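The instructor's notes for this session suggest beginning with a concrete chain rather than abstract definitions. Hand out the sequence below and ask the class to guess, before any prediction is shown, which regions might be ordered.
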Amino acid sequence: MRTTLALIAALGVSLISSGCASNPADGYSFDSTYPQGIRTVSIPVFDNYSFDTGVESELTDAVIKEFQRSTGIRVVQGGTAESELKGVVTKSELRRLSTQRGTGFVQELAVTLTVDFDWKDTRSGKLLVSRRQFAAADTFVPVPGSGERLDTGRHGAVQRLAQDLVAELRESW
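After discussion, reveal the predicted structure:
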């Protein structure tokens, strides 16, 4: 009886472990999806080429927090980092999504933020990830009653962009 149970257990373990891949790009794996040897990242304040002042600081802060929350990579200051993530806010747009029938007043708006970013290994100079025109959007309702402000939509777009940006870095491996 014990031999049968031991045999079944060994068979189960071998089946389960054979379902995992040694490389995260090939399937389920216990290995990190980030590059080996990169344990630290420096994230300087993003540049801002849009007319939306202050969005660069809010976005940089959100990206740093997302890195700390969802990766095993530590965010550090300056030249001691093994990698560096640099970005530029290239566009901040408001888009009307709906209007009231009788008055034509805007009921719902979308804030769209667009960035260019590069993540590079500072030791070798190798570019790890580079994206252009990477965008995220969020909506808000400025009509009386709910009266959400533009800051509400911008904050939502910043948070979504930070999450999507860090997820994009993870997907490249």
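Then share the key points. The chain has three helices and six strands. The beta strands are 40-42, 47-48, 74-75, 83-99, 106-121, 127-140.
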